[in-house]
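Dig into these lines:

——
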Amino acid sequence: RLPAEFGRRPIIVSPDAALRYLSSADYAFEPELLAVAAEWVRPGDTVWDIGSNLGVFALAAAHKAGANGRVLAVEADNWLAGVIRRTCRLADNQELSIDVLPAAVSESAGIASFAIASRGRASNALADVSTRTTIGGVRETHLVPTLPIDQLLETAPEPSLIKIDVEGAEVLALRGASRVLAEARPVVYIEVGEENGPPVAELLGEAGYVLLDPEKPAAERRPLDRCLFNTLAVPKERHAADGT
């Protein structure tokens, strides 16, 4: 179950996604990830969870967004997407609004090869962009549909927050999100590999975003000139207005 702040919501987990989930303690879930949901999601918000894995962030965000909120969990691994759906069907979660989309994001619509990581499904990645040692080898590959994040606007309300964790495909994801960034102006919480730091910072800067360290208290955050592994990106106008 998620920590008390998120209603002790039950979630189905698997050691094939991350071994820490075998622990029953609150630290089984990434505290930094949950802190973002706690700080930035408000009742009635729409949240997009891109690279949802088991749906930890999606579930936490749905709890914070409440009955009038909506969460879209995008997960390329059909097996993981199925686990998220099972979590949504649990009796304690059925009033939450979580849609699950089994697809990968990229800069354009198409079909791509998706690598299932030997070390665990948390490190799954598009085969063409996977350069991280955390994948530990590939046990098998699947063909998956790809779509740009902008295409989600055709079926989902504009997001107030987007979380992106796509294991090396961050640049492709942002290239396909230019309309969302320009029109919806969501807060973006993104995991950025070292190899993608400069182009991600450039794309977000060109879109009018300020880069911040989400792990620092709000009062201590200062604009960054580079991406961290976990980067918070806030529209410049919002940062200027409220100093967050």
About this structure: The CA atoms of residues 132 and 166 lie 12 Å apart.
